[in-house]
Amino acid sequence: MPASRSLAATVARIFKQTPATDIHTHLFDPAMGPLLLWGIDELLTYHYLVAEVLRARTDVSLKSFWDTPKPAQAELVWQELFVRRTPVSEACRGVLTVLQTLGLNANAENLSGIRKYFAAQNVRGYVDQVFKLAGVERVYMTNDPLNPTERALWEKGFGRDPRFLATLRLDSALKDWPGSVGNLIAMGYAVDTSLAGRTLSEVRRYLADWSQRIDARYLAISLAPNFRYPDVTASLTNLIVKAVIPVARERGIPVALMIGVRKAVNPLLGDAGDSVGGADIAALENLARDFGDVTFLATLLAREDMHGLCVAARKFKNIIPFGCWWFLNNPFLVREITAMRLEMLGLSFVPQHSDCRVLDQLIYKWMHSREIIGSVLAAKYDDLERAGRPVSAADIRRDLATLFDGRLINQRLPAVTA
Ligand code: RAT
Ligand code: ZN
Asked: Does the beta carbon of 353 lie inside 6 Å of ligand 1?
């Protein structure tokens, strides 16, 4: 049942005043220069839109698309998805929300006026403006020391913007083991292709060194549907159990498990070429049970797994479901998932992260999410009022802060003694 007008309006008003912590993005500290993407060409060539334009223009080959310079790719996306067609998809609507919020013409025939606006911005001022418009107070980056450009920046050092918190992403170092051995050796870690000998302690040293250097707030990895625990035969499971979890425990930081991605099912599509699969929720429960003093932030990619994740989180307080990830970040799914989580977990989850790759996307991803999550929450409050429990503005303020200020990912768990 939709919420009463006045409750919905109160929630929307308070939500607007509640700054959000965005716990998973692909944005970078502005001091990291070109790694931080922003502006119209980046917005329009977001991989969600690349997949859509290539469906609209079936005559354009992937090779010729990638051979095209980025501004021309952006122009193609604009013409095909925004001018020649009605831009109904969520990714298209997002661009329109950004343009409209910035006071730009979302109905332009071409990009020249929009480009002029972006050319006049300087990145630091623009970061401030976008954070303000998005109502975001801090974002977590996705940091990968195996990326040579990124590593060079960390090694050189830079003045950190405190709004951009680091997280250590483990995919390139640990997945597809021993694929990364050469890179780790080149970085000074005496690892071997087998996990015997001192390899595991050297991987731990890599994780500890880099967590320390970047001040990582959690360790994160995306996992395929076939991830299992326990599984003594799988290198990745061994690395997670014997290297990642011990380092996370020692540093008192969470491990983020992002499960259900099937990488590169269409490799020619690049970032847009990954697909979805189910997660083994028992593996997550087994980890949470065996490592009760470590927090597992968990986001799963398949809609079908959302209910199982709520059940798992009800069993284990060290499982914190977060966000509506990637293909789930669409209004109809955010509504369903948020309602389910509130009903099954109360306020003990992180409803949303943006996954932004382009700074400006913070504006639309948070505006759209606030609208839906706010209306779901208001409907729940209505149910409570009808059950005799009035909900005050102070309640709403407290609840929204609990859900969105990032405190849940910093929860302290007692050491496991038994
Ligand atoms: O949502 C995305 O942009 C994906 O491509 C991935 O980056 C995903 O969120 C991930 O972190 O692996
Ligand atoms: Zn991501």
From this structure: no
Candidates 377, 368, 378, 385; CA nearest to 349 is 377
Total domain count, the chain: 1
With cut-offs at 50, 70 and 90, classify the pLDDT of residue 413. confident
The residue whose CA has the least distance to atom 3 of ligand 1 is 355
Tell whether 115 is covered by a domain: yes
Task: Establish if 165 belongs to a structural domain.
Answer: yes
Of all protein residues, the one whose alpha carbon is nearest to atom 8 of ligand 1 is 326
What pLDDT is attached to residue 79? 98
Residue nearest to atom 2 of ligand 1 (CA): 326
User: What average pLDDT does range 47-65 have in this prediction?
Assistant: 97
Cβ of 222 less than 6 Å from ligand 1? yes
- Going by their DSSP bridges, the two strands 319-321 and 275-276 should be labelled as unpaired
Residue 417 banded pLDDT, cuts 50, 70, 90: low
CB 224 within 8 A of CB 263: yes
Residue whose CA lies nearest to ligand 1 atom number 4: 326
Q: Which residue has the tokens 């429990």?
A: 389
Question: In this structure, is residue 417 part of a structural domain?
Answer: no
Tell me the C-alpha distance between 340 and 358, whole Å: 29
Q: Is residue 416 part of a domain?
A: no
Q: Is 200:243 a contact under the CB 8 Å cutoff?
A: yes
Distance from residue 326's CA to the centre of ligand 1 (Å): 6
- 262 CA distance to ligand 1 middle (Å): 12
pLDDT, tens digit (0-9, with 9 covering 90-100), for 132-168: 999 999 999 999 999 999 999 999 999 999 999 999 9
Domain extent for 279: 5-410
Mean pLDDT (the chain, rounded): 97
Instruction: Indicate whether residue 365 lines ligand 1 (CB < 6 A).
Output: no
Tens of pLDDT, residue by residue over 80-106, are 999 999 999 999 999 999 999 999 999
Residue with CA nearest ligand 1 atom 12: 222
Residues 6 or more apart in contact with residue 100 via CB below 8 angstroms:
106
Distances (CA, A) of 4 to 337, 376, 387: 21, 12, 14
Q: Is 326 in the pocket of ligand 1 (CB under 6 A)?
A: yes
Q: How confident is the model at residue 228 (pLDDT cuts 50, 70, 90)?
A: very high
CATH of the domain at 137: 3.20.20.140
Q: Indicate which ligand has the atom closest to the C-alpha of 259.
A: 1
